[in-house]
């Protein structure tokens, strides 16, 4: 039986402190450790994944750049962006890495539909898109069969820093956000809808067999 999942609301938080917290949680968790979902915002920061190239940092200026252990290229976090970090035992939940990415995407798409925002996912470029613009980025690290990092959903933020990078390594990719598309700017209210959608999409692999979730695997978009 899977222990009850815990929700932690961390508010506006320093990126490095939260990242180290996720690493420590994953390194010390055991078979009966409850899964957690962390909900928060970050102070302005660019993060560059393990496969990231510095040429995608066009003009970071005074915003710090942090090299992190997720997959993918560069993205931006800042106030007004809802960050969702699922710290889940994927083996216990019988979930594969791709299923976890899909759960984050589909939960976001379902939540956006609440306000009539039509969104899609792209298998070749994980994340969530609205009319060709990206509204949510996804990056995961899998270690000891468990995941951390997660989803960054643009709600009501200053999008200017995205112009200082090639978001997720894609030249010319434009970003958008919920408040510019007729949705709310209340991050807490959006999280109240998004978390149940995510839990509903966390389903086992189709054949019910333990998925392969090798240590050190990264997924992003």
Could you describe the 3D structure shown?
- This protein is of the alpha+beta class and 221 residues long.
- The protein has one domain: 2-Layer Sandwich (BirA Bifunctional Protein, domain 2), CATH 3.30.930.10.
- It is 21% helix and 29% strand.
- Strands 1, 2, 6, 7, 8, 9, 10 and 11 form an eight-stranded mixed sheet that branches.
- A hairpin with a 2-residue loop joins strand 9 and strand 10.
- Helix 2 crosses helix 3.
- It is globular, with a radius of gyration of 16 Å.
- Residues 207-215 have low confidence and may be disordered.
Name the features.
alpha+beta, 21% helix, 8-stranded mixed sheet, 3-stranded mixed sheet, 221 residues, BirA Bifunctional Protein, domain 2, 11 strands, globular
| Strand residue percentage | 25-35%
Q: According to CATH, what is the class?
A: Alpha Beta
Helix content percent band:
10-25%
The major beta sheet can be summarized as:
8 strands, mixed
The CATH architecture designation is: 2-Layer Sandwich
Classification by helices and strands: alpha+beta
User: Which spans of ≥5 residues are poorly predicted at pLDDT below 50?
Assistant: 207-215
- The domain count comes to 1
First-last Cα distance: 32 Å
- According to CATH, what is the topology? BirA Bifunctional Protein, domain 2
CATH superfamily label: Bira Bifunctional Protein, Domain 2
Number of DSSP helices?
Answer: 3
For the CA atoms, what is the radius of gyration? Answer: 16 Å
| 3D shape | globular
Number of strands: 11
Mean of residue pLDDT values: 91
| SSE run | EHEEEEEHEEEEHE
